[in-house]
User: What shape does this take?
Amino acid sequence: MKKQPRVLAVRFLTELSSKQGKLDSLSQSADFLELDPRDRRFVTGLVKGVLRNRKLLDYYLESLSRTSLEQLDEPVLWILRVALYQVKFLRVPDHAAVNEAVDTCRRLHKTSASGFVNAILRSFLREHLPLPGGNSANALAVRFSHPEWLVERFLNRYGVQQTLALLKRNNEPPLPVHWVNVFKTDLPSFCRELEEDQISFQVHTSLPNCVIVRSSGFSEHPAYLEGRCFRMDAGSQEVAYLGEYQDCRVLGDFCCAPGGKSFLIASQIGEGVRLLCCDASFQRLKETGTRAQLHEIPNLDLIHADLRVNPPFRELFDFILLDVPCSGLGTLRSNPDIRWRVRESDLNRFHSLQLSVLRNGFSVLRRGGELTYSTCSTEPEENESVIEEFLTQEERAAAIGDFHRTFPDPHLGDCFFAARIRHV
Ligand SMILES: C[S@@+](CC[C@H](N)C(=O)[O-])C[C@H]1O[C@@H](n2cnc3c(N)ncnc32)[C@H](O)[C@@H]1O
Assistant: This one.
């Protein structure tokens, strides 16, 4: 039987929330891989859109349902969220959204809930519920579908205007920024290839070898499949250009997977220079190796290592990148599931992990060498407070320049933080 993309989306969302899983598991699921590319894009868009707007959709559902949402059967709740999202954001005609939702109940053996689903959706279409007004954390959290604790932090740190800008930005689709793989092509040839195939693009104005390609099926184009480019957020690319690599002989990227920043650093170093890339996840390291092979990245050694303990090296490094594991709260556009997965209490756990990765990474930096510490988080526990605590404890370390942030600067990328540190 042909797989129904909408049914698959509901099944995936139910599983994701019951297992507290990650959104990337969607692209590995067998049912998803069986879909044709167009349906895959549809399912991905639907799943991301529903997750992004979950709090807003629940606000409507809570106003309409006499049963509390916690008491609803999980698949039924996701059927309602998906249908509401389709009506509100995808302009699916009202009757089609209701019929599809009822049909999904049947296909997921939830026929007994179809009357309830039908009634809720019809009253939503009738009632035109107002949203909470004003700029309190609670009102903004509902209108922009963010966790209230995070909005409260944004308001305290950035004030109303910048918070509004950030919340809006988090709800936009990420900009499809691609790095042109200079190991396989160059920018003019790449642009020519796209022009010949009538694919529209813009060359990024501030990043080298970087192109924005909006065409929806571009990930099936040979330029993409054959590794002449890969997708990488602009904020993430910037981090790979912060260090000074000219005189380095041995460089390390100790939290490297899936390899984006390592590959950009490899493009800035000369022949004979070594780049040692580690990651604690063997699986992710393997995927990095496969990507490195496809993209023909030279000078790269992959090593399985956990930076919670001292790195397994005798030699000292001229440069080290520590793109540490973090909450990912700066990447809410691309990873909408993070809004509901990360809790405020997780930030201290990340802080301790990040501090130990920084200490252990620094232990193999040579005197005079330089390190970049980076996160894709907006939150101080993972950013300045890690650096400040480290600098107070480690007298051989000194900050180079100011902290680098891609927010609140006007910038099109995710929210990255970086600090450069020298071993003095
Ligand atoms: C933010 S990602 C790195 C992204 C990568 N730099 C890039 O640009 O593609 C963080 C990585 O740290 C790895 N990691 C988590 N804990 C680690 C640890 N204790 N030691 C080393 N790597 C770790 C994760 O597996 C993950 O691949």
